[in-house]
Design brief:
78% helix, 13 helices, globular, mainly alpha, single chain, 334 residues
């Protein structure tokens, strides 16, 4: 059962790491336009559909959310903070590329989200030595991948960097990615905060989906405010009137949103199989983030973001990926 849970989380991680691939097929839309449209699916429509799976017949989500207004509002609040992370997360991809951007942002998110969520919600006792060791090993893997990224930045010419990642900017990208990771950790804090927002007797695989919806709802608000501001500032409202590309862009935004949401849908389902192992249950968020990094770097290789790098740089990158894979199973072995 535990292996099945880990497999489901891994599938979700693979889907999330693939979400930027369809975005590359979006045409003639500015970043702020396609970001909020894919977010409409990723943070509103699909999480709402997922949350409905946790509602027994004869009940409603509104009934659930109004039962404990304080917990509901706090969960949304952490979602608003996570929204800042999600916003800057997209920018980290812009400046560093899929591989390195996700590596730095998700590594920071993995460590802080795993440690801070139990502390902020009075469940610090769940942070065992095995969990801490797992987090440390994850950070080591992330750091090694970061070293590979620095090696890449130092050896490639400006022209090669721009060819691999159009807006490549290593210093700005690192700063944005660290901020993204710090704020993105609020997602797991929000899930912990909303852990009791569930109907009694609900299948454990679905019980965290209502809280997931509240967190993504808060994130959507943050992103919508920023993206609409950018639409006004950059005079890009006309993007939404580009009739000739609407169907193409809407479909790829939907696909990107579905792939993104798959990570947390998979996390909810996977944790339902990890209840036999309290350590892995606590460490599940870190596992998801670590595997996101693994698969994002695989996509980075496929998309030729590491093309032109030395064999030594690639070897360092692969070493970091291997350590991350090991970190996903390590707490269970301790």
């Amino acid at each position: 059962m535990i292996l099945l849970g880990l497999l489901i989380i891994a599938i979700g991680a693979f889907c999330q790491s693939s979400c930027y691939v369809p975005i590359n097929r979006i045409r003639r839309w500015s970043w702020e336009s396609y970001w909020i449209v894919q977010g409409f699916f990723a943070w509103l429509v699909l999480p709402l559909a997922g949350a409905l799976l946790a509602v027994p017949e004869g009940h409603s989500l509104m009934q659930l959310f109004t039962a404990d207004p304080r917990a509901t509002l706090l969960t949304i609040f952490y979602g608003v903070l996570w929204g800042v992370g999600g916003l800057t997360f997209g920018l980290s991809m812009r400046y560093l590329g899929v591989a390195l951007g996700q590596s730095i942002a998700l590594g920071t998110c993995a460590a802080l989200g795993t440690i801070l969520a139990p502390i902020f919600t009075g469940q610090a006792s769940s942070i065992t030595a095995a969990v801490i060791i797992g987090v440390i090993v994850t950070l080591v893997g992330i750091a090694i991948i970061g070293v590979a990224g620095a090696m890449k930045a130092s050896t490639l010419s400006d022209e090669e960097k721009k060819k691999a990642v159009k807006d490549f900017n290593f210093p700005k990208g690192i700063a944005v990615a660290l901020l993204a990771g710090f704020m993105s950790a609020c997602f797991n804090i929000g899930l912990y905060q909303g852990a009791e927002i569930k109907f009694a007797g609900v299948n454990p695989m679905f019980e965290s989906l209502p809280a997931t919806f509240l967190v993504t709802l808060g994130g959507f608000v943050t992103n919508a405010i920023y993206c609409f501001y950018q639409n006004s500032r950059n005079h890009t409202w006309s993007d939404y009137r580009e009739g000739s590309v609407w169907l193409n862009n809407l479909l790829f935004c939907l696909l990107a949103g579905a792939l993104w949401y798959s990570q947390f849908f998979g996390l909810a389902l996977g944790k339902g199989f990890l209840t036999e192992s309290p350590t892995l249950f606590t460490f599940a968020f870190c596992i998801l983030m670590a595997l996101n990094v693994v698969f994002s770097n695989v996509w980075g290789i496929i998309l030729k973001e590491w093309k032109g790098c030395s064999h030594k740089t690639i070897a360092v990158l692969v070493a970091g990926i291997v350590i991350l894979i090991v970190s996903s199973f390590l707490p269970q072995l301790i």
